[in-house]
């Protein structure tokens, strides 16, 4: 989801420390404050090409992992219902390990060879909707005995074949669908796509991703509304009411020795804190048997031992590898459904690139960098399908927002995050711990998370003239159709009977994917009903993605390929026609730019110890 400048906290410091860049505005001075002072408070401590100290990279890398952790672990937990795995905690832990491992690899590829911005890669909800639609088809409906915990033998060959056959079908569809994204990215056709896609297409598409998952959120939260309500209340409290309230923490610097510094902990880690406290309370209530011990009683699924002693059963080390669930299978219906999610993911990522460039002190990403970024994301989806995460990868908007909070835009921090996620994927016990999160806690997190996704989609209407009856009709009809048609198809699954089985399956998947239905109608109506570009929001949309600040770095320093690859490629004149290659030789910096960069680095490196306080608990 593309984050705006204000919502990203571009003008909001996460921690108010005694540093040149971290001081909060003096409220006593009010409007008399000098403009230069306001600009000074928004400067980055480390920009995209800077290399912070190694310990700072690790600490901020951990924060980025924690920021993305909610979205990453949510995907395997949701998929487990469609894969008939809701009572197999050990396999769920393997899926969590795999998605962490692949996300780390894809992050390293994106930062090194892709768009080269400090942007983290992880699982995507845009592929979750078509995946669940595919798994809801009659041939993939879970057997009744897999829905009863007392009847499930997780080590039996029958049960293993039930979930692995579904996973292999997902893998094949994702791998074939990702080839389309690879082609669109490296061929440079993403620019042609964006020419016809505006806010009235993006708004219903993204909004319906969140709205279509209401059943998963309600089912999980309904297992114990008391616990889920507490989770919701805490996340809302931390993320909205307490986000600007700093908490004093001890800090040490050479100038002030041991002293206290204020840290906006609630703004940095609201989701993690919001689920940790209810999780711990559920653990205590489980130990003292406050929750029912009978599986058929209300509140039993709030226990932390529902999935058995999964932590002790999980291995210390687990190395995910391609094809670990068997040879992937391919179905036409699955591939077409995944293509709808892939297109949405590409649109979303282009917006993330521009937002990330603004917040990391980089120039706007050039076409060759965007092409490489989309191509590498397609390659990441291909790897995710091969490893068997049941999902793909995309750029994480939450971590783009974290750049505005920490004021550290260095891509080396994201490299550290990628290495840490690979390590988390290797340590099996870490993923096993996450599977013990009770279902009501997960449901509470889903209710907040999916609501934000839906609202983020609607926020794209800020560029559109909503006083226009044309635009009101397009958005309203697209949204309502995206809810009505999939709901009717689910209730009348045998209504589609063209006589061609493959065509029936394709239509079944597409028409039960809300984001496709809404996005399709939005796209067709927006491009066929007469309306000016200003009325459609195209002018404001394009303007929002242009750079509106002075460039602090030369484009070549940020976006050219590493290890001298760009210099080698520039020796061949014909390579300038390759869409993902930097055009020509990178220009050298002039004296003024060099002085500016050196001054920026010296200022930025003065107090790295202060940034640690802003990221550490």
Provide keyphrases for this structure.
disordered N terminus, 617 residues, globular, 3% strand, mainly alpha
Brief synopsis:
With 617 residues, the protein is mainly alpha-helical. The protein is built from 27 helices and five strands.
What topology emerges from the helices and strands here?
Elements: E1 15-16, H1 35-41, H2 54-82, H3 89-113, E2 121-122, H4 128-135, H5 157-187, H6 190-196, H7 199-211, H8 214-221, H9 225-241, E3 247-253, E4 257-263, H10 265-268, H11 270-287, H12 310-313, H13 332-359, H14 367-387, E5 394-395, H15 397-406, H16 411-426, H17 428-434, H18 439-458, H19 469-491, H20 501-511, H21 514-528, H22 533-536, H23 538-544, H24 555-559, H25 565-570, H26 591-604, H27 608-615
Helix pairs in contact: 2-3, 2-4, 2-15, 2-16, 2-27, 3-14, 3-16, 3-17, 4-13, 5-13, 5-14, 7-18, 7-19, 7-21, 8-18, 9-11, 9-18, 11-18, 13-14, 13-15, 13-20, 19-21
Structural write-up:
Strand 3 (247-253) and strand 4 (257-263) form a beta hairpin. The protein is 59% helix and 3% strand. Residues 1-41, 547-552 and 586-617 have low confidence and may be disordered. It has 27 helices and 5 strands. It is mainly alpha-helical.
Low-pLDDT ranges: 1-41, 547-552, 586-617
Distance between the termini: 27 Å
Strand order of the largest sheet: 1-4-3
Mean pLDDT: 78
Q: Structural class given helices, strands, pairing?
A: mainly alpha
Number of strands: 5
How large is the share of residues in beta strands? under 5%
Query: Roughly how much helix do the residues carry, as a percent range?
Result: 55-70%
Number of helices: 27
Rg, nearest Å: 24 Å
Major pleated sheet? 3 strands, antiparallel
Shape: globular
Assembly context of the chains: single chain
């Amino acid at each position: 989801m593309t984050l705006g400048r204000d919502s990203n906290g571009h003008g909001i410091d996460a921690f108010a420390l005694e540093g040149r860049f971290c001081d909060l505005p003096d409220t006593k001075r009010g409007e008399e404050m000098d403009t230069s002072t306001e600009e000074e408070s928004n400067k980055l401590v480390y920009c995209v090409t800077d290399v912070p100290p190694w310990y700072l990279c690790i600490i901020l890398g951990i924060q980025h992992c924690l920021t993305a952790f909610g979205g990453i672990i949510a995907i395997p937990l949701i998929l487990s219902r469609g894969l008939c795995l809701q009572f197999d905690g050990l396999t769920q832990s393997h899926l969590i390990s795999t998605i962490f491992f692949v996300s780390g690899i894809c992050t390293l590829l994106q930062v090194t060879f892709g768009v080269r911005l400090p942007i983290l890669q992880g699982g995507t909800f845009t592929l979750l909707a078509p995946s669940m639609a595919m798994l809801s088809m009659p041939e993939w409906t879970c057997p009744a005995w897999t829905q009863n915990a007392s009847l499930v033998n997780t080590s039996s060959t029958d049960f293993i074949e039930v979930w692995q056959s579904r996973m292999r079908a997902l893998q094949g569809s994702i791998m074939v669908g990702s080839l389309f994204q690879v082609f669109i990215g490296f061929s440079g056709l993403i620019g042609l796509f964006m020419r016809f896609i505006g806010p009235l297409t993006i708004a219903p598409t993204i909004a319906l991703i969140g709205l279509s998952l209401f059943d998963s959120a309600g089912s999980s939260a309904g297992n114990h509304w008391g616990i889920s309500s507490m989770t919701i209340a805490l996340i809302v409290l931390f993320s909205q009411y307490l986000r600007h309230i700093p908490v004093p923490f001890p800090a040490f610097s050479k100038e002030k020795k041991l002293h206290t510094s204020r840290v906006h902990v609630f703004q940095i880690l609201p989701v993690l804190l919001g689920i940790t406290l209810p999780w711990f309370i559920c653990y205590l209530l489980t130990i003292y048997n406050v929750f029912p011990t009978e599986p058929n009683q209300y509140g039993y699924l709030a226990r932390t031992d529902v999935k058995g002693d999964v932590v002790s059963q999980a291995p210390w080390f687990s190395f995910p590898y391609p094809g670990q669930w068997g040879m992937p299978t391919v179905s036409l219906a699955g591939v077409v459904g995944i293509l709808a999610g892939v297109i949405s993911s590409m649109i979303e990522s282009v917006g993330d690139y521009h937002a990330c460039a603004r917040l990391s002190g980089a120039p706007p990403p050039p076409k060759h960098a965007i092409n490489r970024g989309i191509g590498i994301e397609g390659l990441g989806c291909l790897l995710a399908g091969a490893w068997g995460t049941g999902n793909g990868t995309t750029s994480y908007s939450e971590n783009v927002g974290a750049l505005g909070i920490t004021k550290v835009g260095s891509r080396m921090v994201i490299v550290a995050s990628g290495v840490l996620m690979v390590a988390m994927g290797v340590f099996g016990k870490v993923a096993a711990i996450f599977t013990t999160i009770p279902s009501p806690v997960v449901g509470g997190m889903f209710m907040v998370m999916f609501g934000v996704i839906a609202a983020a989609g609607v926020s794209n209407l800020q560029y559109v003239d909503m006083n226009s009856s044309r635009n009101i009709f397009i958005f309203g009809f697209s949204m309502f159709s995206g809810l009505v048609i999939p709901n009717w198809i689910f209730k009348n699954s045998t209504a589609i009977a063209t006589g061609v089985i493959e065509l029936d399956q394709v239509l079944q998947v597409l028409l039960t994917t809300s984001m496709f239905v809404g996005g399709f109608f939005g796209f067709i109506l927006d491009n066929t009903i007469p309306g000016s570009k200003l009325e459609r929001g195209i002018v404001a949309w394009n303007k929002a993605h242009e750079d509106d600040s002075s460039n602090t770095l030369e484009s070549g320093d940020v976006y050219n390929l590493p290890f001298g690859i760009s210099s080698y490629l520039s020796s061949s004149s014909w390579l300038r026609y390759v869409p993902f290659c930097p055009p020509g030789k990178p220009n050298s910096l002039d004296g003024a730019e060099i002085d500016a960069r050196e001054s920026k680095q010296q200022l930025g490196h003065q107090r790295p110890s202060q940034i640690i306080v802003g990221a550490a608990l």
